[in-house]
């Protein structure tokens, strides 16, 4: 069977850590099965949905390296939803109800007080034509409820295994509000049917929608797709995500300088039986992916862990992988420079700072002027290579009798202006003799 999945964000905000997992799971599954991924913009809420957010979503997915085969917008499809509504009405599956929010709340309270589940009592089904006319002439417009069949709904969830829901325990869901606007439930099903969606992969927060939606597929004469509901995110200590963490947008992570591959590796491996590790490519993630590896427990999202993973990814990246980005940053000198600095980077843009350390101008820090002067005089002529530093340091040690930290720290501070950094044996040939002499003499170079 050919696979078609969809990622269906609402363009009412930017993508955040939570919904990027849904996007990735859908994308990886489609890739693995040679299937198609659709981007569906759930923009039925005309007030809160904007083109800017839609564009932001496309930008975020593209930055992560996820491509989609087709895009649809729900706001283009109201006529299709209206037609489905008519079919459901004609089939007796959609009925008008007139209770206000307050009345419904009161009913709920009474039911709970009697120890009964707060399920809608279908009072609206008992209204006669005359009752309805009376309500409507008094200015009440109905909302519309989908009449569930009272039976067990069963599906074999791709992640959670076999699920049983007794539809008698559910309220008939409202599909159309009194003002004529749609709740998410119906448009989603109509689209899934029309667009030939074979697998609906989404967060566990939607599990309660699935039984009513399966009945909707059937009421509209369609075979329901397969469903998979993935675990949701919690914070580093297993707590609910703080507002700050929930708001962690992909845009924010990008602006912080994190690698798309680190974000994708992290999002794809937390909450699974795979170890959280940097993967060399998205394709590698695809190969490893399986719904069977997804844990039922919540996935721990810890931005510090993501940052550490980003650093580990950079430390192992070959020069070819970063050459274009380095060029964009005006960082030159190729592979030698990259291999010298990569293990000192938290984010790629740190390479720019090391480039400025190498090429200057830099104000050296002189802590032992006598030592630095002698060291400058002992610098060998160029050409220099990886062995220059060791030979030079041995000469300085012999000439001054200074060794260990007392030797290396003043030289590092003079040459780089910093206490820590990449190995000096790799940096020294990149700094070059002229700049090294000047810096050892305390001059900006
Ligand atoms: N727009 C819905 C959401 O973002 C889509 C849910 C679904 O995948 O069915 O939660």
Short description:
With 445 residues, the chain is mostly helical. It has helices at residues 17-32, 51-64, 78-90, 101-113, 129-137, 185-194, 207-219, 243-246, 250-255, 260-269, 282-288, 303-316, 319-328, 334-341, 350-359, 369-378, 388-400, 405-416, 424-431, 433-440; strands at 4-7, 36-41, 70-73, 94-97, 143-146, 152-157, 161-166, 174-176, 199-203, 226-230, 233-234, 299-300.
| Main sheet makeup | 3 strands, parallel
State the share of residues found in helices, binned by percent.
40-55%
Strand content: 5-15%
Radius of gyration from the alpha-carbon trace, in angstroms: 31 Å
Overall domain count: 5
- How many runs of DSSP E, i.e. beta strands? 12
- Strand order across the largest sheet: 1-2-3
State the helix count. 20
- CATH superfamily name of the largest domain? HUPs
Briefly, what CATH class of the largest domain? Alpha Beta
Shape: elongated
Features:
single chain, 445 residues, mainly alpha, Rossmann fold, Glutamyl-tRNA Synthetase, domain 3, Glutamyl-tRNA Synthetase, domain 2, 3-stranded parallel β-sheet, binds glutamic acid
